[in-house]
């Protein structure tokens, strides 16, 4: 938030705007209760509030998102720990296990977006975390392909609410200037999940090899990650509130201040009523489909690499146990890329342009994997590590759904379409890694390079469009007779109908 005082004196809402928006944001109720008072948020108060919010939300969001990645990719570690033999997988069975998660995710994504709007945000998100932990732990009990497919389907259903829920939480609690860094931070724990997952799987593999085990090592991996996820979900339920107004770790005064500090977002903190005009605006907005196109194309590579990275590294000439360990640095690359991209994007005010560096790195890395000879194991492994910087634009666009899409129904709709496209890309991705193409998987690798190139063009288009729209809004604000309505920040207006709304680039 800008370091200035936020003054609240006249709390009368313009009836015309209120009628047009159908009903106002939940934040307006809190603001109206202090009618006639002056709210002062100086720089020190703002820093204090931000520190409290960060310490209560960020650690849990980061750990949960790390488990979100680890839990859905545990199958990659299990695939080289005996799972394929024990479940008698053959042909394309493993590819379908990779895709089935995203069929569940795809089928439940839009219902999840509606539930996230209508249900208490913190409680619903926490329940989903607990349920996905329970489902994952049940994977240890499967004994055939049918059981594994069922578990993967329900795992996708349970995890469908996590990313859109976290995008809503970020837009609810943080100013637009803060959102890029926070989104990059919690999403970067995908990389930490990969590091921890590799180390845990390696430790279990070595331990059971040395001391033996009454159950298969790959089953222990599923039990350990599933049970830990349940514990984290219960902690999330206790700590993370539905919004600022029922945060038990904020005083009554600080709750109102926490709402007031995000006034600058022009978005409010939540509205539980579905608004058809906002849904229609989302469907007609070119940026909705530019976002969706990016998610579809970018996640074809993601779907292949997340499910096959352990096998890919093994095909570089390393042993199965080595591939578990050598996947860990890839997670570190992702963490560094996402955190640095988020920081630089917010600091320079060029979130999209800064994110493109990770995609260029990934493209170069995949070209190395294709071009280098099979004998150059180390060079191809470095190429794989470079591909792990690829999520930077995906996260930048995800943070833009938080900061650039206003109107609660519109925001949840755009997020749902974005993540539905993400699912479709991830369903397609594993199918490009065909068994007959081993050990090089050249057709899949060429597909990945082409996808990265197309994505760069799409990002450039999004940047151009938002720049053009900001100029239009500036002309409206500068026109004769224009007047900003009182408290319009809390009226649940969309970014399209609010001339005060400035898009983050």
Question: How would you name the oligomeric state of the polypeptide chains in this document?
Answer: single chain
Radius of gyration: 23 Å
The number of distinct β-strands equals: 0
Biggest sheet descriptor: none
Number of helices: 20
Question: How does CATH name the architecture?
Answer: Up-down Bundle
Low-confidence stretches: 1-22
What would the CATH topology be? Answer: Growth Hormone, Chain: A
Beta content = under 5%
**Fourth-tier CATH superfamily name:** MFS general substrate transporter like domains
Description of the molecule:
The chain has one domain: Up-down Bundle (Growth Hormone, Chain: A). The protein is 72% helix and 0% strand. It is built from 20 helices and no strands. α3 (43-78) runs antiparallel to α8 (162-173) and α9 (176-211) packs antiparallel against α15. The radius of gyration is 23 Å and the shape is globular. Mean pLDDT is 84; it is low at 1-22.
Short description:
The protein has 505 residues and is mostly helical. It has 20 helices and no strands. The protein has a single domain, classed as MFS general substrate transporter like domains (Growth Hormone, Chain: A, Up-down Bundle).
What is the fold's blueprint, element by element?
Layout: H1 15-20, H2 26-32, H3 43-78, H4 83-86, H5 93-118, H6 121-138, H7 145-159, H8 162-173, H9 176-211, H10 217-239, H11 252-260, H12 276-284, H13 286-315, H14 320-326, H15 328-348, H16 351-371, H17 377-387, H18 392-404, H19 408-431, H20 442-478
Tag the structure with descriptive keywords.
single chain, 505 residues, mainly alpha, Growth Hormone, Chain: A, 20 helices, 72% helix, globular
């Amino acid at each position: 938030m800008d370091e200035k005082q936020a003054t609240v004196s006249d709390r009368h809402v313009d009836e015309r705007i209120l009628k047009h928006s159908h009903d106002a944001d939940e934040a307006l109720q809190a603001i109206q209760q202090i009618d006639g008072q002056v709210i002062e948020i100086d720089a020190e108060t703002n820093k204090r509030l931000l520190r409290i919010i960060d310490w209560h939300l960020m650690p849990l969001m980061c750990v949960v998102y790390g488990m979100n990645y680890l839990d859905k990719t545990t199958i990659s570690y299990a695939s080289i720990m005996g799972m394929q033999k024990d479940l008698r997988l053959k042909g394309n069975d493993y590819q379908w296990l990779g895709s089935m998660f995203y069929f569940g995710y795809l089928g439940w994504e839009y219902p999840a977006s509606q539930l996230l709007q209508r249900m208490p945000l913190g409680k619903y998100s926490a329940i989903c975390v607990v349920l996905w932990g329970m489902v994952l732990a049940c994977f240890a009990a499967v004994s055939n392909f049918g059981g594994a497919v069922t578990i993967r389907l329900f795992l996708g259903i349970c995890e469908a609410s996590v990313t859109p829920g976290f995008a809503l939480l970020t837009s609810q609690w943080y100013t637009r200037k803060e959102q890029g860094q926070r989104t990059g931070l919690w999403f970067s724990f995908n990389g930490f999940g990969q590091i921890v997952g590799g180390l845990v799987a390696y430790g279990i593999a070595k331990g059971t090899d040395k001391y033996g085990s009454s159950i298969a090592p790959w089953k222990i991996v599923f039990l350990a990650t599933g049970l830990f996820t349940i514990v984290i979900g219960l902690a999330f339920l206790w700590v993370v509130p539905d919004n600022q107004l029922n945060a038990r770790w904020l005083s009554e005064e600080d709750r109102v201040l926490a709402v007031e500090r995000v006034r600058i977002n022009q978005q409010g903190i939540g509205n539980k009523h579905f608004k058809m005009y906002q849904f229609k605006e989302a469907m007609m907005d070119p940026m909705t489909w530019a976002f969706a196109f990016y998610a579809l194309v970018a996640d074809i590579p993601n779907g292949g690499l997340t499910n096959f990275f352990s096998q890919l590294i093994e095909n570089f000439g390393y042993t199965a146990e080595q591939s578990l360990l050598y996947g860990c640095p890839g997670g570190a690359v992702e963490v560094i890329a996402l955190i640095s991209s988020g920081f630089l994007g917010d600091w320079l005010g060029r979130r999209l342009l800064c994110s493109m560096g990770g995609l260029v790195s990934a493209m170069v890395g995949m070209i190395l994997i294709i071009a280098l000879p099979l004998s150059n194991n180390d060079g191809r492994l470095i190429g794989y590590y470079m591909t792990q910087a690829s999520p930077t634009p995906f996260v930048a666009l995800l943070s833009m759904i938080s900061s650039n899409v206003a109107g609660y129904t519109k925001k949840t709709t755009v997020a749902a379409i974005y993540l539905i496209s993400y699912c479709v890309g991830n369903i397609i991705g594993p199918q490009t890694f065909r068994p007959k193409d081993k050990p090089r998987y050249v057709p899949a690798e060429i597909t990945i390079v082409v996808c990265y190139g197309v994505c760069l063009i799409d990002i450039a288009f999004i940047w151009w469009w938002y720049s053009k729209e900001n100029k239009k809004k500036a002309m409206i604000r500068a026109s004769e007779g224009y007047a900003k309505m009182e408290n319009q920040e809390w009226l649940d207006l969309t970014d399209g109908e609010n001339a005060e709304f400035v898009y983050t680039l």
